[in-house]
Amino acid sequence: MSLSSIKGMNDILPQDIHLWHFFESTAKECLKQFGYQEMRTPILEHTEVFVRGIGQVTDIVEKEMYSFNDSLNGENLTLRPEGTAAAVRSVIQNNLLYDGGKKLWYIGPMFRHERPQRGRYRQFHQLGIESLGFISPQADIELIVLATSLFEKLGINSKLVLHLNSLGNIDERMQHRQALVTYFEQNIDLLDEDSLKRLKTNPLRILDSKNPKMQDMIEKAPNIGDFLLQESLEHFNNIKQLLDSLAIKYIVNPRLVRGLDYYNRTVFEWITDELGAQGTVCGGGRYDPLIELMGGKASPAVGLAMGIERILELIKLTNFVNTPTLDAYIVHQQSILTAFKVAQELRQYNLNILQHTNPDNIEQSLKAQMKKANNSKAKFAIILTNEAQNIIQCKNLANGESKNFSTEQISQIAQYIKEVK
Q: What is the pLDDT of residues 26-36, one digit of tens each?
């Protein structure tokens, strides 16, 4: 019986890895330009980190976390389902805010026990960006500008729409929550099973339901905007005015909520209509209460996280990234040492060279090696068959044209290959 991967936990194969490299290198360069610093946290945390940080009555904590008791020391541990709570734990533990605000980012796998579907997996990868210690709307705007800049560099900005909302402060949210409970109780016959559960635990999440039978009723539910007082309204209006001045398009979506308890005031999502049901590609917002909630000194914060798998799906649709190709495949029937030397010398000119390796230590025919060269999708075959005459044949595999060089003309070979590129 052959072994297979766990459902919803996928291999990243060679034909796709260039997309991951493109995303990672582009993101790192963009974050560097904005002055954000990388941090890394463990994949395993104490379960309490997420229970306290995410919220006891969220879907993630109630039914999606991979948690277990460590038999060696009796601790309850969890594979991280999201990055913000773990990052905040690290910031508090290591006193990173003692000398002022910090702008941090991280990247890595997250784990949730969900029903696998396109763009939604049990092991998935996120890029998280956190701006800690800054109360000004400028911090909110900077994250939105940063993400917009990254999406432009990735070639997917035209496929995304920014949705924006404000959840207000805790008192405003509680008033809105009570109004929602009253309204949904009056329409209880229209609620589905999930919404009935959320009515008692997190009624705000009912607004995020995708059940088509509930949409008309949800549209008429109390609006958080009607409960915002002057300070929250000024914060939100400042953000909208700055976005308008920066010509960043957005939609104010009064039904936009986030699935985690720690958000307040600004929340935002970038949504696409090209990935089916999994339309949210990036989301975040302000979470001023979280640091104190997790045992640190009260400090404002705002952050976002983007699903890398979903972004890569969009990149594939744009054809923005070319599949990397080999510059040359070395075919040889005489000295293996010469083949190694030629390959290494060509690599000194920043060329990608694949050297033919004989299977089972049995020399293959020229025809068999040329077949391998063509299948490799290399641009050229470097053919070493006239070693006695010091001749290297350079064959363009696209049009069949060949040109001969001497073994002393490696730099000319490299230049020839680059000119054809």
A: 999 999 999 99
Q: Which residue has the tokens 């104010």?
A: 252
CATH of the domain at 361: 3.40.50.800
Three-state DSSP class for 20? helix
Cα 419 to Cα 327: distance, rounded to the nearest angstrom? 11
Confidence of residue 114 (pLDDT cuts 50, 70, 90): confident
Could you tell me the CA-to-CA distances from 370 to 286, 331, 356, 383 in Å, in that order? Answer: 59, 7, 10, 9
Per the CB < 8 A criterion, the answer to whether 239 and 167 are in contact is no
d(CA 204, CA 261): 10
Under 8 Å between Cβ of 308 and 105: no
CA–CA distance, 414 with 250 (Å, rounded to integer): 49
Please state, in angstroms and rounded to a whole number, the distance separating the CA atoms of residues 77 and 69.
Answer: 6
Tell whether 306 and 345 lie within a shared domain.
no
Task: For helices 230-245 and 137-154, give the axis angle rounded to 10 degrees.
Answer: 40
- The Cα–Cα gap between 13 and 11 comes to 6
What mean pLDDT do residues 183-199 have? 83
221 pLDDT tier (thresholds 50, 70, 90): confident
**285 three-state secondary structure:** strand
Name the percent of the chain lying above pLDDT 90: 38
Dihedral sign from CA coordinates of 17, 22, 25, 28: negative
Q: Say yes or no: 19 and 99 in one domain.
A: yes
CA atoms within 13 Å, Cβ hemisphere of 72: 1
- Name the residue among 125, 113, 127, 126 with its Cα closest to residue 8: 113
Q: What is the pTM of this model?
A: 0.84
Strand partners, 166: 266
DSSP line for 70-134: -TTT--EEEE-S-SHHHHHHHHHHTTTTTTS-EEEEEEEEEE-----BTTB-SEEEEEEEEEES-
Structural domain range at position 144: 14-168+228-318
Residues 156 and 101 in one domain: yes
Residue 357 belongs to some domain of the structure: yes
pLDDT digits (tens, 9 = 90+) for 348-384: 989 898 888 877 666 778 888 888 888 888 888 888 8
